[in-house]
Q: What sequence folds into this?
């Protein structure tokens, strides 16, 4: 019994100095239900003897211990971003910064306990239930569940992570010369590799306008790649050196489009002077 009141297992008829209980499934369930908040509980055994027509009862308390009490855990992680799955060709792979990891715990308490808490962490991101972690930056997911008895189970799921390099686009220095010639330069970083099913591509383009006017259409620039870095250039001629111009650049790969801020450039004048000198800023032939 428990608390000397609730019967957990029925009397058995026994002979000899010892007896080994073989519990029925119902009796096992009764014992497991004694405490759903602890792995141990005190239960009381009764020995009833009949001698000379008289009944004698003796009791002894013993500690019940729940065997193998920890909750079970079968977690899963898949990529829920259709765009990155199309690039990797495999939902079990993740792309850094862009994949949305769909996580499930597959947790269950045992022996009449209940699940009290769940948590999965991936880098700085975490969830406390099945759900989606957006834009993951790590391939390691640590799942932890705790039951009502205080038992904890932890498992780590490791996924292949495509180490995508974030696309950047930076405007270079420089201004048009006095003849209206301008070498416009852009540089940045990009992912120079394959996602798995698709190899990444890079396009860099530019547009400009005379101050106060309308922008031209974006046009391609010549790109040079080195590892995960790139430079892009275009040479323009015939710019009106008397007016400022605004320039913008844009880099595009399989996952991102990055557009720079507008930059205003002014040409060097054909000549300049001061009280002490006079300078030509164009070639002079004598």
A:
């Amino acid at each position: 019994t428990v608390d000397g009141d609730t019967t957990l297992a029925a009397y058995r008829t026994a002979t000899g100095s010892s007896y080994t209980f073989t519990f029925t499934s119902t009796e096992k369930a009764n014992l497991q239900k004694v405490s759903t908040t602890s792995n141990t509980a005190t239960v009381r055994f009764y020995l009833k003897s009949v001698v000379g027509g008289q009944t004698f009862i003796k009791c002894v308390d013993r500690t019940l211990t729940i065997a193998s009490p920890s909750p079970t855990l079968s977690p899963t992680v898949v990529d829920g971003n259709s765009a990155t799955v199309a690039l990797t060709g495999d939902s079990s792979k993740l792309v850094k910064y862009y994949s949305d990891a769909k996580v499930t715990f597959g947790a269950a308490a045992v022996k009449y306990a209940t699940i009290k808490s769940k948590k999965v962490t991936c880098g700085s991101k975490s969830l406390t239930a099945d759900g989606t972690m957006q834009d993951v930056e790590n391939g390691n997911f640590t799942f932890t569940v705790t039951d009502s008895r205080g038992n904890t189970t932890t498992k780590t799921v490791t996924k292949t992570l495509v180490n995508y390099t974030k696309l950047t686009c930076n405007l270079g220095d420089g201004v048009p010369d006095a003849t209206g010639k301008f070498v416009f330069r852009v540089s940045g970083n990009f992912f120079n590799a394959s996602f798995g099913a698709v190899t990444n591509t890079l396009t860099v383009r530019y547009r400009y306008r005379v101050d106060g006017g309308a922008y031209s259409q974006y046009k391609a620039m010549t790109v040079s790649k080195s590892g995960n870095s790139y430079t892009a250039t275009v040479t323009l001629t015939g710019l009106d050196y008397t007016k400022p111009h605004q320039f913008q650049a844009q880099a595009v790969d399989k996952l991102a489009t990055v557009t720079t801020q507008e930059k205003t450039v002014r040409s060097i004048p054909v000549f300049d002077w001061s009280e002490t000198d006079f300078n030509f800023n164009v070639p002079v032939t004598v």
